[in-house]
């Protein structure tokens, strides 16, 4: 017994020094390849003896780049073409040495290329290609009626559609922006004729697509690299050395196959990444197989925390604001106007606005949900208070009750039903909107929904959507119960029509 | 007790009360009577401090009424309005004792006073736990009167206290109110548009028209020596239907 204990202590002591206090934070974009590379990075860092967390599916290039610059994350997978043509396009960088210098000026570094070139390409259905005789991108010029569908990033990037159209003189006018994962389904269903694809996309083989040849060399090379903060090399040199081991190990076919295993064969990204590392780099990792329930509870906890914190903060601020608005009409205009404007901001935009202020993860999500929850409570508090009949208000004043006591004993209880209704509305909106918080790394029920959309897996989407709907109903029921307990009988009798 | 000296009030461009001086007699019932819009309710609301005068001064025991002493002086006034103004989320007992509880009265004292008042206004004690919505109109006015009397105020203000009741209950409560006023001998200021009710309840009648006091005195004085043709018209307008009825029955 004593010997066991000593052995355990020894083990703990020997493991401890390698554990860095702060874990290495890895980010990934919201598509399968980026997530798989992120998992590889996490497993490699852990194999080097550091704690690592992987904030998966954080969003698009802008979100990841800002998060890395701000030190919210330490590492994320990126493509040289994106760096040259999009992020650093103003610097007109020609070669890799110049790119490394440009990154160094920003306190960043990159690993050597991982091997594959995931360039953009244009994909069409094989039948379409046969019928119209399409072989190269130039061939598209003869068919102005084709419907094109491009991922939202490709639609707007200088190295995307605007540049491609100019370079080739393409005449198509029916061009739609949509989510990259949905574009494949649109193409398969015949709603679209041509879409942008990544060279390593698993779906190219799956849907039997024809990739049109870039005969005029428009698309630059998109060599995958791991981008990391220079300070990581000082903090965790072993981790950086491990990441470098991935260089040159992944060619196009390998990466496309890994993508296919996750996306089409529904293997877990962690297991696919671990198997690859074990087989090709001899890096063994302890892949904790988390079962569905464990994941479900984690998402539930995350979701509840987001809702509980943001909603209680909103209640704590919104009720006083509503009281203020009812008390001072001019301030009221301002308060109702300002909270109303917040409500008009699209929820996704509001989440993204919070990133420069609060980084990624829980805090910005809570802040956005908090702002979103204000209006219904403020407005109902205001309406509940201003709807109180003048004789009641004057009777309270005529009794000689001071202003604060009138508010506490008469006006707030009378407005209670309206205030509770406002809180209920806010809570239901909050539960629903919180599913978007996964996009900025806050987890919750949005995580399986996001992964489900990425993998075109309806079951996974439902794993997030159904609990979110159930939670919304539960929250609503909870507040109805609270109403029964909090609203005095004298006010409830009228509601049922009894006398 | 209460003095209004040269008090005037206008709402926007509309004058509601022309400069008016009125000193109701102590321990007597003064009734403000007149057609709607004559300024009688405005005058009462000025005394209760629910609106502030544009000019002039209202004194309570010699102390000018102002925002600084309003809450303190209101404790010494009781106020009853047409629909009762009871708080719908509170029981009868809670409505009546609200201010006393706020002032920190002890439980025994609260309960004794509550029972005493219920006896005075003839409200069964079984009603204490009911909510206003569960009471009849007459019961509601009784509770409202109890609430106004809870702190034993020096001045009682009543704004059309019986205005929303049906004629039978109204008649019954008129009888009781007169007895209560006589028993309490407080300074009472009551507003009504009904000249018979005014004569029955008031020692002094103050007849108002278009924001001015036209005449003050007993009903007898108003009938015998009307200050104005309007006084005669106002009184006979309410008397005529009764006399027509009497002729029909005879």
Topology of this protein?
The complex is a heterodimer of chains A (499) and B (250).
Chain A: H1 2-15, E1 24-27, H2 32-47, E2 52-55, H3 61-69, E3 75-79, H4 80-87, H5 96-104, E4 108-110, E5 120-125, H6 126-132, E6 148-151, H7 152-156, H8 161-168, E7 175-178, H9 180-189, E8 194-198, H10 203-206, E9 209-212, E10 224-229, H11 230-235, H12 237-244, H13 252-263, H14 269-281, H15 292-327, H16 329-344, H17 347-358, H18 362-386, H19 390-398, H20 403-433, H21 446-455, H22 458-486, H23 489-496
Parallel strand pairs in A: 1-2, 6-7, 6-8
Antiparallel strand pairs in A: 3-10, 4-10, 5-8, 5-9
Helix pairs in contact in A: 2-12, 2-14, 15-16, 15-18, 15-20, 16-18, 17-18, 18-20, 20-22, 21-22
Chain B: E1 2-11, E2 14-22, E3 29-33, H1 40-47, E4 55-60, E5 63-64, H2 70-74, E6 77-80, H3 92-102, H4 107-121, H5 137-149, E7 155-159, H6 167-184, E8 187-192, H7 195-201, E9 204-209, E10 212-217, H8 219-224, H9 229-249
Parallel strand pairs in B: 3-8, 3-9, 6-7, 7-8
Antiparallel strand pairs in B: 1-2, 1-4, 4-5, 9-10
